[in-house]
Amino acid sequence: MGIESESSGGWGVARGLVVKTLVLIGGALLLKRLTKSTTRWDHARLVARSLSGEKFSRDQASRDPDHYFNFRMLTCPAAEMVDGSKVLYFEQVSAAFWRTPQKPFRQRFYMVKPCPKELKCDVELSSYAIRDAEEYKNFCDRPKDQRPLPEEVIGDIAEHLTTIHLKRCDRGKRCLYEGATPPEGFPNSWNGAAYCTSELSILRNNEIHVWDKGYDDDGNQVWGPKEGPYEFKPAPASSTGDMFSPLNFPLQQSIEKRIEGSFVLRE
């Protein structure tokens, strides 16, 4: 009896030590995971993922049809550079033309990578013109075997257009990342502009706010919305058809003229 009791007691002590050890190890692993710092490439990957997908400005156009249009923004991965930078294809089309073959008003490549270490930002987002934009029309909607190959995409990256430096938003804010081009902007000659600027916010609900504006030599704004940024929200999977409805927009010819004069940047 004494031997059996002593054996049971020893096993109980050993089992307690094992449980405590496992708890300590689990706690250490959890603490490590919680306190693990986000790397520069983690930021870049999150921004690329947030930009990707199909988004619409329908809600904003419904609230203020005099100043905003229902646009479809579609972005998807297109290639990866040798240094790990992500190349995304981006296009924008007006939902007012949903009954006709969609010709994008804006097409470009985005390159997403960490900010240079000397800058106080997290992600560098640069836009580039496309060498032959017609070949990339509806790129994201095509099966992957019908798209230009990644090496072809890299070869079709043309002139640099703009660069936005994004920073992680402080806790408590609606956004995940926000940033802008330098105040002096980048050269742009469309519609009488001398330069253009851009502001971008990535919200926690995967919404994108973007404000592109063009200015002449005297600092007068000559294109882009003046009231505030465009607000693009992800489209619910079951309501894509509704998101493309033209709302109460005027006839196509009239809307096209308004878009050309107030929003669209043709690179």
Q: Which descriptors would you attach to this protein?
A:
single chain; 267 residues; alpha+beta; Lipocalin; 10-stranded antiparallel β-barrel; 6 helices; 12 strands; 27% helix; disordered C terminus; Chromophore lyase CpcT/CpeT; CpcT/CpeT
Question: Describe it for me?
Answer:
With 267 residues, the protein is an alpha+beta fold. The protein has a domain at 40-187: CpcT/CpeT domain (Lipocalin). 27% of the residues lie in helices and 32% in strands. The protein is built from six helices and twelve strands. A ten-stranded antiparallel beta barrel has the order 1-2-3-4-5-6-7-9-10-12. Strand 4 and strand 5 (123-130) form a beta hairpin. It is globular, with a radius of gyration of 25 Å. The N and C termini lie far apart (91 Å).
What is the N-to-C succession of helices and strands? HHEHEEEEHEEEEEEEHH
Based on CA atoms alone, the radius of gyration comes out at: 25 Å
Determine the fraction of residues in helical runs and give it as a percent range.
25-40%
CATH C-level category of the domain at 40-187: Mainly Beta
GO molecular function, one term: lyase activity
Protein name: Chromophore lyase CpcT/CpeT
Organism: Trema orientale (Charcoal tree)
Pfam families: CpeT (PF06206)
Write the layout of secondary structure elements.
Blueprint: H1 2-35, H2 40-51, E1 53-56, H3 58-63, E2 71-80, E3 86-94, E4 106-114, E5 123-130, H4 150-155, E6 157-168, E7 175-180, E8 186-187, E9 195-203, E10 208-215, E11 221-223, E12 230-234, H5 240-243, H6 252-262
Antiparallel strand pairs: 1-2, 1-12, 2-3, 3-4, 4-5, 5-6, 6-7, 7-9, 8-9, 9-10, 10-11, 10-12
